[in-house]
Amino acid sequence: MANSAQARKRARQNTKRRQHTASQRSMIRTYIKRIDAAIADKNYEAATEAYNKAVPVIDRMADKGIIHKNKAARHKSRLNKAVKALQA
Fold it and tell me: What is d(CA 7, CA 11) in angstroms, rounded to the nearest whole number?
């Protein structure tokens, strides 16, 4: 347990930041699940719309450091590939 006032404050800050980061990660996962659901339904229009809404969110989280930029790029690439496969 934190003993000094400084350590107690840091513990409070870390708890608050951890909750905020967890919320941001959850939001990314939700956007990705929406795309996956549209792909599973083989609905190209819905998948494209969901993908276009998700990309800026994924990029923003990568810029903020919530997820690594390579992980963001990997998600976007794989999702885009799956969406494009519906069109064919």
Answer: 6
